[in-house]
Design a protein that fits this description.
Layout (H helix, E strand, L loop, with lengths): L14 E3 L8 E4 L5 E9 L6 H18 L3 E11 L5 H18 L2 E9 L4 E10 L15 E4 L5 H9 L5 H12 L3 H10 L3 E4 L4 H13 L1 E6 L9 H6 L5 H10 L3 E2 L5 H8 L7 E5 L4 H11 L5 E8 L19 E4 L1
Parallel strand pairs: 4-5, 9-13, 10-13
Antiparallel strand pairs: 1-2, 2-3, 3-6, 4-6, 7-11, 7-12, 8-11, 9-12
């Protein structure tokens, strides 16, 4: 946030979500029935196959609209590409992205490209949502059940792939997870009246949980055994095939997390940065079974209760270092 600190920006009562509260997208109210969702995301290739890379990058960008409870309306390509690679590879990347946008029901309306030394691809997406049904990461309440809609571990598996140590089956599963849209999961949470949501991306499960807990004024109790993980992710963590982003996430968020007795390997999976991860949904206890049933009907890759929200005062304070006062953690992780 240091890069945007002090920027001169306008305020407007119609702005429902901006960049000041770690929301997944910006939301602007047009009228009593309609709000616009704006988001953009792009990154360098994480898969060797250009078509699959395009699929994953597009699914990742579209996910922010779904996390806000909206429906994608239009999308525009963002392309950074070295012309020396030729147009065949770029065509495959764009084809993958276009097919994923088509699957979402949105319209692909153009884009922008620049000649760059390293390929990068993604989308700028605009979506629609009712102003009264926007899903914010600040909506979790004490007593809520927290449900995750995709297994985690894509960062670890991507690292293993680059090292040539991932099995073909694990690579295929990671691609299936990353390329899957959160469309059905978003519709399911809206149907049951969920309280809040965020999607799991670069900060990993625990990092995005910390953001949700902080924004909502609650704390979360998490059991490692309840968290769905892609097969092989834990083994790669134990082998030390851990991406740098995992360590950065741990360094940033670890002081707000209590995890007595939890192994470093397990924490590495929980901090693992995800690409096009699942939705993390806060829902009332009495609606949890219905949401899980709807998620399964929608084809969501997971429908797991991974945490319970409690009042922050319910978690025992932890020491933050010599000379610093103890403070209550945002997350308590147990085996």
């Amino acid at each position: 946030m240091a890069a945007v600190e002090g920027l001169r920006v306008r305020t407007d009562p119609r702005l429902i979500a901006g960049f000041d509260k770690s929301e997944d997208a910006g939301v602007y109210k047009l009228n009593d029935d309609t709000a616009l969702i704006h988001t953009v995301d792009f990154f360098t290739p994480i898969l060797d196959d250009p078509y699959e890379f395009g699929q994953v990058a597009a699914a990742n960008a579209l996910s922010d609209v779904y996390a806000m409870g909206g429906v994608p309306l239009v999308a525009m390509n963002i392309v950074c590409y070295p012309c020396s690679l030729g147009m065949d590879v770029l065509h495959e990347i764009l084809m993958g992205g276009a097919d994923k946008v088509f699957e979402s029901g949105a319209l692909l309306v153009g884009g922008h490209s620049v000649d760059d030394a390293e390929p990068k691809y993604g989308l700028a997406v605009t979506g629609l949502v009712h102003p009264d049904r926007v899903m914010l990461n600040s909506g979790a309440r004490p007593g809520d059940v927290i449900i995750l809609t995709k297994p985690i571990g894509t960062g670890l598996i991507s690292t293993a792939m680059r090292a040539g140590m991932a099995s073909p089956e694990t690579e295929k599963r990671a691609y299936e997870v990353m390329s899957a849209l959160n469309l059905g999961a978003s519709a399911a949470m809206q149907a049951v009246g969920a309280h809040g949501c965020t999607d799991i991306t670069g900060f990993g499960l625990l990092g995005h949980m910390c953001e949700m807990a902080l924004a909502s004024g609650v704390a979360f109790k998490v059991s490692v055994g309840d968290v769905p993980m892609i097969e092989g992710a834990s083994e790669y963590a134990a082998m030390g095939l851990v991406p740098g982003g995992t360590k950065r996430n741990a360094a940033h968020f670890r002081s707000r997390i209590s995890a007595p007795g939890v192994s470093e390997e397990s924490m590495d999976v929980l901090f693992d940065p995800q690409t096009s991860g699942g939705l993390l949904i806060a829902v009332a206890q009495e609606s949890a079974d219905e949401l899980i049933a709807r998620l399964r009907e929608s084809g969501a890759l997971a429908s797991a209760v991974v945490a319970h929200a409690v009042a922050q005062m319910e978690l025992a304070p932890t020491e933050t270092g010599e000379g610093s006062p103890a403070r209550s953690p945002l997350i308590e992780v147990s085996l």
